[in-house]
Amino acid sequence: MNWLKNLVGRLYAVYVLIIFILFMLIFLLPMWLVSFYSLRIRLRKFVKLGRLWCRLMMPLVGCPVRTKGRENFAPGQAYIIVCNHNSFMDIPATYAGIPGSHKSLAKKEMVKTPVFGIMYKIGSVLVDRKDPASRKQSFVEMKEVLENGIHMLLYPEGTRNKTGQPLKEFYDGAFSLAIETQKPILPTVIWGTREILPAGKPFFAWPHRVKMEFLPPVSSIGYSMDDVEELKEKVFRMMWERYQQG
Q: How far apart are CA 40 and CA 229, in angstroms?
């Protein structure tokens, strides 16, 4: 019966793609219009539109998002949200679940994507990971985002986790940013997106519920740049243990 599941999974992937394109075309104009506002207003309106898009789309494609731990967001506090990264579906899941305005760090080449690139540019801090100057500039821009009271969403694994382990090893960036800005880290764990888009199965998808939990924030106050590894390991252990609990 594997051939039948493969066939259904590919038909379902076509359905998801069609729904995504339809929503993208519907939201393109209003998202483009908000790009003319100042940073704070522009991002607030953009995120509201993105959240509406994802909250409508995810249940429609059979992947409703359930969130837990929103009480860990203190009013008026900007957080560095670090999240595990299992598939492309993490992006609409986080948009549906994260309260308040936020930006994410994204690859610069994604801006070249027709139509979607326009939206990507508004909602992200862009970086060319192969260019040291671009990486340095992205760090400056992320600090500005946080100073404006906006959350920064980062995937510390760097790329999608295609291993059989709960998490891949974390990079230092999110934790260096936390120490530099003295902003708290909000560890976040997602389950279910790996099942929607399984690694190693091109153009295949399967409906699955998504669960996202915001863990208690981790303060960066008192840490220095010499303590990046300690802070990184602390957050890694929190997320690993919670992921395994399911």
A: 32
Please tell me the distance from the alpha carbon of residue 203 to that of residue 217, in angstroms, as a whole number: 37
Which CATH number, 3.30.420, 3.40.1130, 2.60.40, 1.10.150, labels domain 2-245?
A: 3.40.1130
CB atoms within 10 A of CB 143: 15
Q: Any idea what the Cα angle at residue 128 is, between residues 151 and 111, rounded to 5°?
A: 75
Task: Quote the pLDDT of residue 85.
Answer: 95
Residue 174 has which token pair? 């999110």
Residue pair 57/175 in contact (Cβ under 8 Å)? The answer is no
Higher pLDDT, 182 or 201: 182
Query: Is 8 in contact with 202 (CB distance < 8 Å)?
Result: no
Q: Which stretch of 12-26, 81-95, 98-112, 209-223 has the lowest confidence by average pLDDT? A: 98-112
> Cα(246)–Cα(47) distance, rounded to whole angstroms?
28
Question: For residues 229 and 187, what is the distance between their CA atoms, to the nearest angstrom?
Answer: 16
